[in-house]
Each structure stands twice: as structure tokens, then as C-alpha cells.
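Before the break, one more example. Copy the sequence into your notebook; we will annotate it together after we see the structure.
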Amino acid sequence: MFRKIIFPQPSPQLSEIEQKRRSYAFFVNSGLFLFFSIVFVIHLTCAMGTAHYTADVLGIIGTLISIYLIRSNKMDSALKLLIGTCLTAIFVYGILVDYLHEVTVHFLRLYVTLFALEGTLLLMVSFFLDTVNYRYIALLFTFFLLMHFGVIVHHYGTAQITLEMFSYFTIALVAINLSCYIASVMVRFNLSLIRNINDDKRKILKHNENLELEVNRRTQELQKSNENLKQFAHVVSHDLKEPLRTIANFAGLLQHKLDKSNIVDIEINDYTSYIKNNSTLMIRLINEILTFSTIPSSSANFQAINMKEVLDLVLLQIESLVQEKQGIVRYSSLCNVKGDPLLIYQVMQNLIVNALRYTASDTTPEISVNCIPGDTMSTFSVKDNGLGIPQEYVELVFNPLERLKRDQKNDGTGMGLSICRKIVFAHGGKIWVESEVGKGSTFFFTLPILKK
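Here is what the structure looks like once it is written out:
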């Protein structure tokens, strides 16, 4: 609550540089307010005189009003008021006090005036007040010093002014004018630098806005293109499957007619069987290519998945194949993950079916499914005792339509592992295989853990 009342609140209308300038001005004003307040207490304790009290009160009032203006985002007005307050205090503390004879030391107070003017100049430079003409500031500061020196001459008399005193006064005049010139150069340089920085930031922001618009436009075009491709894939797959079904049906009718006519021709039987098998394989390939092209890449449908339930469902669906191959599937406790249940089911089914199919006919398939939990991803493994994969094919088996030479007699389409890889990638995981010919393969894949 105290911070909200005292400290200035961020303003969305101001740039980052202006926000820092505003905060800096606020703390400088607060410091000067404390200074005038402490000095006022000291002057009261020491009974310094009316001029001192007047300067202290003017300083306190001026800094308070300046703080209010800063909180209202009126920076130029606040800083000009602050500088006016400091100059008024300098005039009263130095010139007026010496004129009224409220202190015994006079000439040395000329240097107090000089240092105070230098401090005020530094204050202006710190805030980069481009609305201030530093030539006029130099004239104003010169007038202050001349007036103070005139008060000293009036107090001591012309005869008491030594050459040393006049020399130091001349040095003070040169110092304050040179300081004003250096200040004007610094302000021009810094303001030019700030303008360049602001221009660069505006250009970067504009470029980022244009880039974001372009990215959004391209994204919308890609989304529209993907939708069109999906629709096209459905239409093409339907148009391709129908002729293949027709070919397969007519091959079956031809075989039926030959059987009905008691015509036994082994060569024709081979032809019709070949046509039917390849037509069926082609339909399966089209279906799997369609599945591959329509796998989603977002996490919109992700949910908690009990992998044991998924594996049980897979084994139930392929029970006939497991019995046909007399396979054995073992698994330990499996980690729960987050993902799309239907897609993860496809991964598990493809890997286990492949493990059953690619096992030597004289070997009992033994498959082991395990899980190693991790911090963000769980690693699953499907290990078999099958034929194994030659090393030159280990990196290729996940490519679409990639089939090993030894698999040509198998009824696979070459899309199963590529579908697995795309599904795992869509879940932010990875998939790989370790294999040795004649000793089986182990497929690994990672899935995001289910956070509690």
C-alpha cells in the first residue's frame, strides 16, 4: 500500500527509456526533499536566521510539487520546477544570506554558490532537458556569480578585494561557462543517441509486427493447404480403392468361374491369386498412407493414458495372430503417460505385430515390453527374439515405404514404423531401434510423463 502511494506507477504510454528517466527523477526529487528537510531541522537547531528558513521551506515545497508532477507524468514541468527551486535556494543561501550578514564567512560562500550551480547543471544534464537553452543557463549562472561577488564587494569594500580573490572569481566564471558548454554538447549527443535508439526500437517493433503478421498469414495458408490436402487424400484414396476392389472382385469371379467349369489351370490360378493378394495389399497401403497423412501434430486430444490398459487392448485385438505364431508377450508394470490414446495404441500394436511377424518360422516369438520412468519423458521398449535388422538398414526402417529385401514375401506395406515415428514425434518424443541380425531387435520410444 505504501509503495503504491509513494512510488510512481508504470505508465504504458511511456517508452522504456522514459520510464527509467521518470524513476530516476523521482528518486532525485525524493533525495532533495530529504536534504531540504534535514537542513531545515539543522538550521532551526542552530538558529541560523530567516533567510535560511525561507530557503529550506521553499526547497521542501518545490520538491514536493515536483514529485507530484512526476507522478502525473509531467516530466518537463517537474524538472524545470526542481531546477528553479534549486536556483532559488542557491540565491537565498548564498547571495541573500551574505547580503543580510547572517554568517561571518562571505568569500568562501562564493564557492558554495559555484558548486551548487555545478550540481544544478549536472542535474539538468542527467535528465537531458532539450527544452533548456544552455547559453541562457550560462548567462543566468554568470549573473548569479556576478551578483554574489557584488555582494561581497559591497560587504568588504573595493579596497579589501585582493587580486587572489578576483582571480578565483574569474576562474569560477570560466568554470561555470565551460561547464555549461560541455553540458550542452553532452545533452545533444545523448539525446541524439536516445532518438537513434528509439528509432531502432520502433523499426524493430515494426519489423516484428510485420513478421508476426506474415507468420500468421503463412500459418493460415498452411492450415488451409493441410485441410485441402487431407480432403484431397480422402477423395483420392476412395477413388483408388474402388478400382482395386473391382479388380480383386473380378479376379475372384474369374477364379470362381474356372472352379465352376472344372477348369484346372495352375498358371491361371496363380495369376488370379496374385491379382487378389496385391489388390488387397494396395488397399491396405492406401489406408496406411492416409493414416500417415492425417496424424495430428498438436496436443489438443492429449489426456492421461494407462499404458497397461492400452497393451491389454492390443493383445486382445491381435489374440488370433499371437495364437497362430504361438507367441509369448511379457510385460512389467508400465508407466502412465500423457497423449492421444488411439495413436499410442497404434504404436504399440505396430511394434508387437512386427515382432510377431518377423520371427523365424522355427522360433517361438518372445516379446518383452518394459518402461523406464524419467523426469519429463518415460522410455518404453519392445524387445523381440526375431530375425534382427542389418546395421545398414537401422536408420532406414522408419522411412515411409521402406522394406527390407528379406521382407518382400511378407504382407507388410512398409508404412508401419513410419507411422510410429510420426506419432511419437507428435507427442514430443523420439523412437529408435537397436538390433543384431539373428538375435532380435529392441525398439525404444519416449512419451511425456503424466504430471500429477
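The longest strand covers residues 440-448. Residues 1-5 have pLDDT under 50 and may be disordered. Try to locate both features in your own notes.
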